[in-house]
Amino acid sequence: MGKIIDAHCHLEHLEASELPTFFNGFESNDMACVVASATERNNWDFYKKLEQEHPKQIKICYGIHPLAIDEFWETDLNRLEQYLPQSIAVGEIGLDFHRIFSQDNVNVMKLQMKVFERQIRLAQKYNKPIVVHCREAFRFIREILIYTKFDLHKVAFHCFVEDVSAAQWILSNGGHVSYSGILTFNKPGHTLETAQIAPLSQIFIETDSPYLAPTPFRGKQNSPFFVRYVAEKLAEIKQISFEDCVKVTAGNVHRFFKF
Hints:
Radius of gyration: 17 Å
Largest sheet: 8 strands, parallel
Strand order of the largest sheet: 1-2-3-4-5-6-7-8
Number of strands: 8
Oligomer: single chain
Structural class: alpha/beta
CATH superfamily: Metal-dependent hydrolases
Number of domains: 1
Number of helices: 9
CATH topology: TIM Barrel
Distance between the termini: 20 Å
């Protein structure tokens, strides 16, 4: 059987003493590698060192998460540029308007949009794909992608939960969608219907660990090793074998990130 790739996770919560056990577990869990997102200045060096120590098992995207933006954002952007030549993508970047979509928060929203656009420009400069975080802000992200003329073939919407209309726009323009453990939930939102219409060739599977543990681990800390439960659910939806689902989604990740 082909080995599985978790297309999006976070590892900075792991203690140094836990990391050897984690990486030693790849073989027994049929994992090829994980794609991790370094999302703020305080963890960029942690991930750089991790990739140097485990180059076959972990690949890194570097970016500034919308919720990590603060008064030092310009300094962060300048420093981020130092990491991009060795990065497989700029990410995760995007907009998060959850609970802030109001007139009182216009300045915060505008700053998120400015930093998102600036990071798109960096991706264009270094010819990198982007991994997008989108929470209650799809129409704004779409407009910024159109405005910057960013090639949608180089865009992956991680932890995709948007509706069919959004999925159709992304997919018809060559973009990719990545499904997390939400796909396995009793109330999976729009994920089941969009997963049905999305071509398998434009789908990734991910955990977004340590968040969003899939069924049957709801309420517990998530792990990249749980990505197999997302693969099982996607295979069920697509009416294909687990092995074919793993093979195709892993191939999609390799092709998109070019590693």
